[in-house]
């Protein structure tokens, strides 16, 4: 009786995984591709693209599109048992390497953007001078190199037709799986996230320190008319601080919610790998693994929506300018 219950639960869990791939993956695909494409169009406008921090975010969104385009279609096909990565090793290798390396690069670029904001908010002129477009391009190239080197082993390690693992396209040895899981948990998720939190808090601290100095100047040096003008500027700056704090909080919270579970999952599967439990336990692991994958793809598709909700008037104005430009071109052609 217990055996039949376990068999029924196993079948149900396997069916849930299949339904997630069939119906949730396409929604995330549309959500991610549309959002990142709009983000690229908005951030590439002349008023924004000259900003070093914006360049990090622009390249990150472009990289996220690549990750989604390579990662989700095979999962959608897998929901209908048509995934080519399960049987063709070279497709398996390219897909795995591309998804892991691009996701790592996108996370590192957001981390670098956070460091860039800290440097720009510093009172040290030498730190602010580091934030040049030349150095930003160097940092982007560095993140690309790190991402490639971190997962280049997957061309050797990953193969199709792997049994007793969450996916047929998976690491072919325990050593390969251990290296991949630990690399993803620490290099792709935990370390960048910790650095983002630290430098984000330091940025806010720098902004408050600058405002304290400006406030001291207002109260001790300026006359009444100049004081009123400066107070208006201070009020505007406080609004910007609020947007900065909201944006940072939303980014960190969503990254924790969407990415940290997968890092924990990777560490757990390192200690208790697939194939070490009963059939029901393995089905539960596969379900958890697939949910973690989908959450990570949601994280790759969310930057545009975060910017709209928490990016303040600068981003919304850039969006409206983009809409106006597109509308003018469309109506111009119609006329």
Query: Structural class, please?
Result: mainly alpha
For this structure, what is the CATH class?
Mainly Alpha
The CATH topology is given as: Rhopdopsin 7-helix transmembrane proteins
- Radius of gyration, taken over Cα atoms and rounded to an integer in Å: 24 Å
Mean pLDDT: 82
Q: Total domains, how many?
A: 1
Strand content: under 5%
GO molecular function: G protein-coupled receptor activity
Protein name: G-protein coupled receptors family 1 profile domain-containing protein
Subcellular location: Membrane
Domain G-protein coupled receptors family 1 profile: 35-307
Explain this structure to me?
The structure is a single chain. With 335 residues, the chain is mostly helical. It has a single domain (12-334), classed as Rhopdopsin 7-helix transmembrane proteins, CATH 1.20.1070.10. 84% of the residues lie in helices and 1% in strands. The chain has helices at 2-43, 46-49, 52-78, 89-120, 125-130, 133-151, 154-157, 174-220, 224-271, 279-301, 303-310, 312-334, and strands at residues 158-159, 170-171. It has a two-stranded antiparallel sheet with strand order 1-2. α1 (2-43) runs parallel beside α10 (279-301) and α8 packs antiparallel against α9. 32% of the residues are buried. The model has no long low-confidence stretch (mean pLDDT 82).
